[in-house]
Amino acid sequence: MSGGLGRGGSTAVTAILVNCHELIVANIGDSRAVLCKKGVAKQLSVDHEDIKNRGGFVSNFPGDVPRVDGRLAVSRAFGDKSLKKHLSSEPFVTVEIIEDDAEFVILASDGLWKVMSNQEAVNCIRNIKDARSSAKRLTEEAVNRKSTDDISCIVVKFQ
Prior knowledge:
Domain PPM-type phosphatase: 1-158
CATH topology: Phosphatase 2c, domain 1
Organism: Glycine max (Soybean)
Protein name: PPM-type phosphatase domain-containing protein
CATH superfamily: PPM-type phosphatase domain
GO molecular function, one term: protein serine/threonine phosphatase activity
Radius of gyration: 16 Å
């Protein structure tokens, strides 16, 4: 890694639906995937995975966001050169079988999750039919709740 690239990094969450039945989710850092089944939120990814096992720590002081080694406000897993020994680029991967009770999945960055719980996000968009409108509604709600972090969101509706 070039020293001129700075200290920035990234987080990511992605999902693929195989044969309309098997949802595979991969996550690095604190972007998150949440599935809605019969109106109930089910988190499919794990935030801040493996930092403690690699010798780091996540502090959580009142009024602040969780910080890796008391410094970095997210568990960016591919980047942040100075904290690389406590961060991993190995994603957390989970597989969820999609059945008739699955309504939609939300893939979003921490800017949404810092101001909304999983269930609040599900409740916010459950009655919106269009996936794009659902994602827009969630990002608008995060802004209304004064999120100061990046807010990226994708919603996938199941038929």
